[in-house]
């Protein structure tokens, strides 16, 4: 059993007969009244995001997990297939277990969180950013830069990302996986 002081990003807890992963949390100490922890949790089974507030000192049931490095092999539409980089065993996961599957290209190494009680995979953590090639985008219009203007671009995985006007087809860009936003252009 853990308490609210143990809450951190990535912690897996058992709540309402399901396992949730903490995405965001905020310890709040108002001037009047008791302290509490405001959390945003994602169900590892359904992918549903839930906002919840725990009073300070509240007991929570944490789930013991292990992390392993897996390489993304391919997707067959319904399932995403991964291979353990240490013992080469393969697993398959539904799309709901993935945080941002549209940004994952074949060969990408990710961290898979596995429940130690039943050895079932709970969720997949992507790296903080991924480098992808722009496959399609409109050319930027010269003189249209009064503000931070952006345009839509399609990357090699099929995802659509808003990029600055100076990005062209064939450019490598770094994308922040948590928000799915453009970060910077990568020089070869």
UniProtKB/TrEMBL annotation:
<comment type="similarity">
    <text>Belongs to the elongation factor P family.</text>
</comment>
<dbReference type="Pfam" id="PF01132">
    <property type="entry name" value="EFP"/>
</dbReference>
<dbReference type="InterPro" id="IPR008991">
    <property type="entry name" value="Translation_prot_SH3-like_sf"/>
</dbReference>
<dbReference type="InterPro" id="IPR013852">
    <property type="entry name" value="Transl_elong_P/YeiP_CS"/>
</dbReference>
<dbReference type="Pfam" id="PF08207">
    <property type="entry name" value="EFP_N"/>
</dbReference>
<dbReference type="InterPro" id="IPR020599">
    <property type="entry name" value="Transl_elong_fac_P/YeiP"/>
</dbReference>
<dbReference type="Pfam" id="PF09285">
    <property type="entry name" value="Elong-fact-P_C"/>
</dbReference>
<comment type="function">
    <text>Involved in peptide bond synthesis. Stimulates efficient translation and peptide-bond synthesis on native or reconstituted 70S ribosomes in vitro. Probably functions indirectly by altering the affinity of the ribosome for aminoacyl-tRNA, thus increasing their reactivity as acceptors for peptidyl transferase.</text>
</comment>
<dbReference type="InterPro" id="IPR013185">
    <property type="entry name" value="Transl_elong_KOW-like"/>
</dbReference>
<keyword id="KW-0963">Cytoplasm</keyword>
<comment type="pathway">
    <text>Protein biosynthesis; polypeptide chain elongation.</text>
</comment>
<feature type="domain" description="Elongation factor P C-terminal">
    <location>
        <begin position="130"/>
        <end position="185"/>
    </location>
</feature>
<dbReference type="GO" id="GO:0003746">
    <property type="term" value="F:translation elongation factor activity"/>
</dbReference>
<keyword id="KW-0648">Protein biosynthesis</keyword>
<feature type="domain" description="Translation elongation factor P/YeiP central">
    <location>
        <begin position="67"/>
        <end position="122"/>
    </location>
</feature>
<protein>
    <recommendedName>
        <fullName>Elongation factor P</fullName>
    </recommendedName>
</protein>
<keyword id="KW-0251">Elongation factor</keyword>
<dbReference type="InterPro" id="IPR012340">
    <property type="entry name" value="NA-bd_OB-fold"/>
</dbReference>
<dbReference type="InterPro" id="IPR001059">
    <property type="entry name" value="Transl_elong_P/YeiP_cen"/>
</dbReference>
<dbReference type="InterPro" id="IPR015365">
    <property type="entry name" value="Elong-fact-P_C"/>
</dbReference>
<dbReference type="InterPro" id="IPR014722">
    <property type="entry name" value="Rib_uL2_dom2"/>
</dbReference>
<dbReference type="InterPro" id="IPR011768">
    <property type="entry name" value="Transl_elongation_fac_P"/>
</dbReference>
């Amino acid at each position: 059993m853990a308490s609210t002081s143990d809450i951190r990003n990535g912690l897996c807890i058992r709540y309402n007969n399901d396992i949730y992963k903490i995405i965001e949390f905020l310890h709040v100490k108002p001037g009047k009244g008791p302290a509490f922890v405001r959390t945003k949790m994602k169900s590892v089974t359904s992918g549903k995001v839930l906002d919840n507030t725990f009073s300070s000192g509240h007991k929570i049931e944490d789930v013991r997990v292990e992390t392993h490095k897996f390489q993304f092999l391919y997707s067959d539409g319904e399932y995403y297939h991964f291979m353990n980089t240490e013992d080469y065993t393969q697993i398959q996961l539904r799309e709901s277990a993935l945080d941002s599957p549209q940004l994952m290209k074949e060969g990408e190494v990710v961290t898979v969180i596995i429940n130690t009680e039943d050895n079932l995979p709970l969720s997949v953590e992507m790296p903080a950013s991924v480098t992808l090639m722009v496959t399609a985008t409109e050319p930027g219009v010269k003189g249209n830069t009064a503000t931070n203007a952006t345009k839509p671009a399609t990357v090699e995985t099929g995802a659509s990302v808003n990029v600055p006007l100076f990005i062209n087809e064939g450019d490598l860009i770094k994308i922040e996986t948590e928000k799915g936003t453009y970060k910077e252009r990568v020089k070869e």
